[in-house]
Amino acid sequence: MRVLYFDCFSGISGDMVLGALMDLGVDEEAFRRELAKLNLSGYSIVFEKKLKNSISVTDVNVILEENHNHNHGHGHEHEHGHGHNARNLNDIEKIIDSSDLNSNVKQFSKKVFREIAKAEAKVHNKPVEEIHFHEVGAIDSIVDIVGAAICIDLLKIDRVYSSPLHDGKGFVDCQHGRLPVPVPAVLEMLAESNIPYIVEDVNTEMVTPTGIGIIKCLAGGFGNMPVMSVERVGYGAGKRDTGRFNALRCIMGTMDEEVNGDRVIVLNTNIDDMNPEILGFVLDKLFEAGALDVYYTPVYMKKNRPAVELTVLCSEDKEQTVVDIILKETTTLGIRRTFAERYKMDREIVKVSTRYGDVKVKVSKFGEFKKFAPEYEDCREIALNKNVPLWEVYNEVYKKGI
């Protein structure tokens, strides 16, 4: 499968995303043909190869026509709005829906705009429908977001990962005055997202609302670059002078498709002073909360005390819920956290009819290899209801094959 990794060592913005993706080798003519399907007028887009810190990067400028003498060269102030005519979320979705772009591009673009609008609505205590994207920012953002979706489609990307987001500090000037970095909309999108976020000693904004909106909706995981065969590297230029190499790096490559894989959070903690009955309760509660796996390992701790190590595997979106349960329900004072990549066989549940009744069976596949396992609870219920040995129910399932 084709994989894309966003290395956000200098933050992320809409134009940096578009520049980095184009720098990977997207055909400019093909891109412009697709973007023209948007039926959005009043602008032109310029791609320019430049050197930053002696490294070749692609710089993107969206130039507005007529009286709008604005472009990306002003940095990212456009994302925070100017005093021009405005479009709301419904207006932008109509522009996207009325285009001839393919459905994947449309759906992703609308998802990003909804994410940004939802954050702005929370910040300003308004309904999402009342949030307006000011004209300058709206055109820039539409081109950046839809353009990024077009590039992902043209590059035929199957999976996306990202590094932690590196941002600056200080203040930024916008329509609403002088606001702290990260700006409220960015901070709102970070909330409850489990996106790792690092503040650097740089006195400016490096993560913009459009940038985080794109990566939040695009990335399937955040952390170190996954194991992959690297094919191409692209750099998208940032506009601000940060005193360092200001660019977004995109790394494209391939992963082995024979075995499905994903990234999970692994949480560990040692416990030596809890009632075993409560440990059982905690295990059940963690599974009910959506943990992928929970188990205890016997260990010996200081003073030769018998103890257990609690290990929980969970997806990133369940991490905070799992952490809350561990801290509230156990005596531990801290939790160790790591990322892990895992291999998974394809699996499905099928129903097998036996002379005793129907039994659900988990079927797992790896290439041509296949294995299956009857569901214990189904077999147990049949054994009790039919008054037959449990092993006999299992054998009936095995005889059927899959």
TrEMBL record:
An example Gene Ontology molecular-function term: lyase activity
Described purpose of this protein according to its UniProt entry: Involved in the biosynthesis of a nickel-pincer cofactor ((SCS)Ni(II) pincer complex). Binds Ni(2+), and functions in nickel delivery to pyridinium-3,5-bisthiocarboxylic acid mononucleotide (P2TMN), to form the mature cofactor. Is thus probably required for the activation of nickel-pincer cofactor-dependent enzymes.
Top-rank EC class of the record's enzyme: lyase
Domain of life: Bacteria
Pfam families xrefs: Ni_insertion
The UniProt record lists the keyword Lyase: yes
InterPro entries xrefs: Ni_insertion (IPR002822)
Enzymatic reactions: Ni(II)-pyridinium-3,5-bisthiocarboxylate mononucleotide = pyridinium-3,5-bisthiocarboxylate mononucleotide + Ni(2+)
Keyword Lyase: yes
Keywords: Lyase, Nickel
Official protein name in the record: Pyridinium-3,5-bisthiocarboxylic acid mononucleotide nickel insertion protein
Family, as annotated: Belongs to the LarC family.
E.C. number(s) listed in UniProt: 4.99.1.12
A GO biological-process term: protein maturation
Lineage, broadest ranks: Bacteria, Bacillati, Bacillota, Clostridia, Eubacteriales
